[in-house]
Amino acid sequence: MPAEPSFFYFSEISVGSSIDLLELPRSFSPAKIQFRLESGSAQPFNDADLIHDWLTPDGEVAFSCFKSKSGYLLRFPNRADFTVSPDGTSIRGYASNTDTEVVRHDLVAQVLPRVLGHRGELVLHASAVSTPQGAVAFIGNTGTGKSTIAASFSSSGHSPVSDDCLVVDTAGEGPRVAPTFRGTRLWPDSAAVMVGPEDLSTLPSESGGKVSLPTITKAEWDHPGALRLKAAFVLHPKRDGSLGSPVLEELSPAQALMTFVEHSFQLDITHRPSQERRLELFSQLANQLPTYRLEYQQKYSCLDQVEQRILTLLAKRT
């Protein structure tokens, strides 16, 4: 473990960490959030109350959030614990029976997005890529194809902006997003289609079972910059062969607002100030950002159709 913390960007927020966060770009700005990996297990909060369980698609508890006067405890069963200060400026990780890679994955993929949401940032469960017209976001539940569509765009030369988590800044003339993760993370079957089965074994794998496609060079990644977010697409895949070409339907601001609320990262659903702040930000975004329901046949052979349909729409809106 490094004696001194290293600094990394999570979107445009600088994070100081006692372990290397390999997915994130280096930062040279003062840290707004500090993370430290501790030895042993987290001390139980005597006054802690369970406020929420997050479930897997199979109904198992993926992790739980407990609240006390001392802050928050995020518990990933048989994996790791994380304590978070009440203001979200300090995070501690504990993992006596697992390795650093598992801690890093849970921190970057789940804990940091929720802490940023608690601190007043707008954080969507979305992937995003850059196009000539600006960045576009793909929103949806796990398994709807967010990362696969983003990877398809990347294979056509469109740079990835973020995978699975997108921080949106609604200040200024329009919403902006900054790069978060270096590359795209896919399930092995999707990765094999993107890179070829023979190259699949060369890709780094994660504790959650996905593999990483590092589609941004280090030189490009060390200088993140915010991009205008031009549109969002809410994914509704079809798997029964009932759909031909992709179908796009623009959502009303009210429909977009409900979508953003449903597909967002949050830490404490009982914390009224952060909930009020979230609704305010989501309302701004819903009135700023063209948002579409995208129905598409969830087949790899249909990805080109999805890409061309979106690019054509963006070109017409420019």
Describe what you observe in this structure.
The protein is α+β, with helices and mostly antiparallel strands and 318 residues long. The protein has two domains: 6-118, no CATH class; 124-317, 3-Layer(aba) Sandwich (Rossmann fold). It is 27% helix and 31% strand. The strands form three sheets. Strands 9, 10, 11, 12, 13, 14, 17, 18 and 19 form a nine-stranded mixed beta sheet that branches. Strands 1-2-3-8-7-6-5-4 form an eight-stranded mixed beta sheet, with helices on one face. The longest helix has 19 residues, at 100-118. The chain starts with 5 loop residues before the first strand and ends with a helix.
What brief labels describe this structure?
31% strand, 2 domains, Rossmann fold, 318 residues, 9-stranded mixed beta sheet, 8 helices, globular, single chain, alpha+beta
Count of strand segments? 19
**CATH fold-level name of the largest domain:** Rossmann fold
| Class of secondary structure makeup | alpha+beta
Order of helices and strands: EEEEEEEEHEEEHEEEEHHEHEEHHEH
Topology record:
Blueprint: E1 6-10, E2 13-17, E3 33-38, E4 49-55, E5 61-68, E6 71-76, E7 80-84, E8 90-94, H1 100-118, E9 122-124, E10 126-131, E11 134-139, H2 146-155, E12 160-162, E13 166-169, E14 176-177, E15 184-186, H3 188-195, H4 197-200, E16 211-213, H5 218-221, E17 227-238, E18 247-250, H6 253-262, H7 272-288, E19 291-297, H8 303-317
Parallel strand pairs: 2-3, 3-8, 11-17, 17-19
Antiparallel strand pairs: 1-2, 4-5, 5-6, 6-7, 7-8, 9-13, 10-11, 10-12, 13-14, 14-17, 15-16, 18-19
Helix pairs in contact: 6-7
